[in-house]
Amino acid sequence: MGKGKARGIWRFLRGSLLPLALVAMWWLSANRGFGTGILPGPDDLATTINRLVSSGELTGHVRISLWRIAYGFGIAAGTAVPLGIMVASLPGFGQLLLPALEFLRQIPPVAWIPVFILTLGIGEATKLAVIVYAAFFPIFMNTILGVDQIDSHYWEVAQLLQFSRWESLRELILPAATPSLITGLRLGMSNSWRALVAAEMLAAFSGLGYMIMSARSLVRMDEVFVGIAVIGLLGSLFDWGWRAIEKRLLYWRGT
Amino acid sequence: MKNASSIGGVREISQHGPKADIEVQNVSKRFGSDADGLLALSNINLCVPTGAFATIIGQSGCGKTTLLRMIAGLEPPTYGVVKVGGQVVQGTSWERGMVFQEPRLFPWFTVARNVRLGMPDRGHNQEAVTGLLRLVGLEDFGTAFPRELSGGMAQRVALARALAGSPRVLLLDEPLGALDAVTRMRMQQELLKIWQDRQLTIVAVTHDLDEAILLSTQIVVLSERPGRIKKVIPVDLPYPRNRLTGEFNVFRQELMGMLL
Ligand SMILES: Nc1ncnc2c1ncn2[C@@H]1O[C@H](COP(=O)(O)OP(=O)(O)OP(=O)(O)O)[C@@H](O)[C@H]1O
Ligand SMILES: [Mg+2]
User: Which of B65, B75, B172, B208 to probe ligand 1 with, by most ligand atoms within 8 A of CB?
Assistant: First the structure.
C-alpha cells in the first residue's frame, strides 16, 4: 500500500518536471528581456487571474463554456450511442447511413461555422451545433467498434439463454462495449472542447474563446494567457474525470 | 427408438415427463460454399433415447462440436434434420442447455448474476441460484467475478448456468477437459448424480476413453474428417462403474482398437 503511494508521488513529480521547467523558461524570457517584451511572465498572470476572478469575468466565461459543453456533449452522446448501436446491429441501417457519415466525418467542425451562422444565426445554436458535430463522430465510431468487437461466443450464449432485444442490450451489448464507449466519450469531449473554443473565437460574445479574442484585440496578452491556461486545465480535468469513470465501470476487468 | 444405436444394453431409462429423444437423421454439415467448402460431418444418423447419456469421441477436428451445436440449434445442418422429442430443431430452446468447450461467462457480471441469467425468469428465486451454486460446490463464490475463478471453477459455473434453465437435454462439450485428475473424478460422479436426479438426456463430448465408459449408456465413435459414425457402442454396465473391473477393460480395449 505505502509502496504504491510512493510510486504515485514519484510519477506525479516526474510529470511535473517538464511543466515546471517550461514555466521557469517562460519566467526568464519575460523578465530578463528576451523576446519582444509583450509577453507577460508567470508572476503577472497570478495578479491577472486574481483580478479576473474577483471581478467575476473569468468565472462567468468558464460557466458559459461549460454549460455549452454540457448541452452539446449531452446531445451528441444521446444520439451517437443509440445510432452507433443501431448501425452496428442492423446491417441495412449501416449501409444507408455510413457513406454520408464517412464524408461528414472528414470535415472539421470549425469549417461549418460560416454555414451554421448563415442558417442558425450567431446565437447559442451555432455553438451547440459545432460542439455536437465535434463530439458526435468519435462517440459514434467507437460505439460501432465496441459493438462489432463483441465476441460471437457471447452472442451464442445470449441465444441459448433466450435474451430479448432489451436483455441483449442491457446484459451484453452495453457492458461489452463499455471500454470502447468510454474511449469514444472521452475523445468526443476533448474534441468538442477544442472545437467550442474555436467557435467562441469566431462567433460568440461570451465564453473562454471569446475572452481570449477580446483580450487579444485590447492587447491584453496576460488575459490571453490566462484563457489558454484555463482551457488546458479544464480539458485535462475532463480527461481525468473520464479515466476515473472508466476505472469505476470496468472494475470487473481487474488491474 | 427402434434405431440400431438404441438397441442393446441401455440402462433402465426413466420414462416420466415429456420425451426428449434426440434423432439426428441423414445430417451432413458443410462450411463454406458447395464447391470449395469443408465437409465437417457426413451423413450422420443417430438416436439418443430419452434419459440416455451419450458420449461422442473422435479425433480433433472430426466434427464433435459441430454435431452438438446442431442439436443445440446454434447451427443448421446442411442436409438432413435434427429432432428432439419429435420436433425438428430450429434455433435454440430452454429445452436444450449447453456447456461449451470454454466457460463463456459474462466477465462483467458476478458468478451469481451469470447463473441467474440462465433462468427463464432471470432468477427471481434467490434460493434456486444459491442451490445451483451449492450443487457445483461454489456457494461461496456468488459475488466473485469470473476473472477470479480458475478454469475448472468457471466451467462449473457454466454448468450451473446451463442447469438453471431446467433443460431436458444437456449438451456438454468437453466440460471436464480443464480439470485436474482428482477434481475430474469428483465432477464425473457429480455429473452422474445430476443426470440421474434430474432425469436428463445428455450428449457429451470427451477425449477421455475411461470417462466415456464410466459415464455413458452409449458411446458414439466418429471417424476422422469428414466425421461419419464409425460405431455406436452401448455400455450396459451397472452404475456406479468401476474402472478396475474386467468388463470395463473389455470396453476400453474395444475403443482403443477402434481409435488406433
Ligand atoms: N464456423 C466454421 N467455419 C468453418 N469451418 C468450421 C467452422 N466450425 C468448424 N469448422 C471446421 O469443421 C471441422 C470440425 O470442427 P469441430 O469444431 O466440430 O471439431 P471437433 O471435433 O469439435 O474438434 P476438437 O476435438 O478439436 O474440439 C473442423 O475441420 C473445423 O475446421
Ligand atoms: Mg470441439
Answer: B65
The whole-model pTM stands at: 0.86
B196 within some domain: no
Distances (CA, A) of B141 to A155, A221, B8, B148, B174: 25, 62, 43, 9, 23
Question: How far B126 CA sits from the closest chain A CA (Å)?
Answer: 18
CA dihedral B179, B184, B187, B193 (to 10 degrees): 150
**For residues A229-245, average pLDDT:** 94
Q: Pick the residue from chain B with its C-alpha nearest to A161.
A: B118
Task: Report the pLDDT value the prediction gives residue A232, as an integer from 0 to 100.
Answer: 93
Interface mutation target, options A157, A249, A255, chain B, most CBs of B under 10 Å: A157
- Pairwise CB contact (< 8 Å): A159 & B94: no
Q: Return the CATH fold of A43-253.
A: MetI-like fold (1.10.3720)
| A68 within 8 A of A199, measured Cβ to Cβ | no
Of all ligands present, the nearest one to the C-alpha of A156 is 1
Q: Considering the domain boundaries, does residue B72 fall inside one?
A: yes
Report the CATH number at residue B27.
3.40.50.300
User: Is residue B224 one of the residues assigned to a domain?
Assistant: yes
pLDDT given at position A222: 86
User: Which DSSP string corresponds to A171-189?
Assistant: IIIHHHHHHHHHHHHHHHH
Residue A97 vs residue B114, higher pLDDT: B114
Question: What domain range is B220 assigned to?
Answer: 4-93+201-259
pLDDT tens-digit map of A14-23: 888 898 898 8
ipTM attached to this prediction: 0.89
Domain ranges of chain A: 43-253
Q: What integer best gives the mean pLDDT of chain A? A: 89
Would you say residue B138 lies in a domain?
Answer: no
B68, B71, B92, B147: which to substitute to probe chain A, counting the most A Cβ within 10 Å?
B92
Look at ligand 1, atom 12, and give the residue with the nearest C-alpha: B40
Phi, psi of B27 (to 5 degrees): -90, 130
Domain count, chain B: 1
Average pLDDT over residues B196-223: 94
The pLDDT score that the predictor gives to residue B225 is 81
User: Cβ–Cβ of B94/A171 closer than 8 Å?
Assistant: no
How many beta-carbon pairs below 8 A join chains A and B?
Answer: 48
- For atom 6 of ligand 1, the residue with the nearest CA is B31
Q: Which of A99, A92, A68 is nearest to A210 (CA)?
A: A68
In angstroms, rounded to a whole number, what is the distance separating the alpha carbons of residues A246 and A181?
10
